[in-house]
Design a protein that fits this description.
Layout: E1 2-4, H1 21-28, E2 32-33, H2 34-38, E3 48-50, E4 53-55, E5 58-62, E6 69-76, E7 80-81, E8 84-85, E9 91-97, H3 107-112, H4 127-135
Antiparallel strand pairs: 1-5, 2-5, 3-4, 6-9, 7-8
Protein name: Endonuclease/exonuclease/phosphatase domain-containing protein
InterPro entries: Endo/exonu/phosph_ase_sf
């Protein structure tokens, strides 16, 4: 879950309680706020700057058990588009390592582990084969 939540967890004293409800809900359900998680020492970087100050309004959250680990999170100024400021927010990047999600075992390794899998080609199945498969 990512985006501009228009809520700053750190400086929320002037906001109504319902305004921070989504952030508290995600946190209480053990979702990970990646920028906060990675920036434990220095604190999360601010993503919105205005005339009298700055805030952190943009977040990237993942659900518990999300299979990819986070490599880094970074805030960067947004480049201009056609000589105009594209957004008044800075861009929040988070890179994830999905390599462990796509690890597959070779046929030889599956054989060593005495594991096997069966692939049924639906178009080539005969009715009795399908009945046997569906009854297991």
């Amino acid at each position: 879950i990512l985006g501009d939540f228009n809520a700053d967890e750190l400086s929320h004293s002037h906001l109504p309680q319902h305004h921070l409800k989504i952030l508290r809900s995600l946190s209480s359900r053990y979702f990970t706020d990646y920028q906060s998680h990675i920036s434990l020492i220095s604190g999360p970087n601010l993503t919105f700057y205005y005339q009298n100050g700055s805030s952190r309004l943009d977040y990237i959250w993942s659900s518990p058990g999300f299979p990819a680990s986070s490599l880094f999170s970074h805030v960067e100024s947004c480049p201009k588009l056609n000589d105009n400021q594209f957004t008044d927010h800075r861009v929040l990047f988070t890179a994830f390592d999905f390599s462990s999600c796509f690890a597959t075992l070779s046929k030889a390794r599956l054989k060593q582990k005495s594991e096997q899998h069966t692939i049924f080609l639906y178009k080539n199945l005969k009715e009795d084969t399908w009945d046997t498969f569906s009854n297991e």
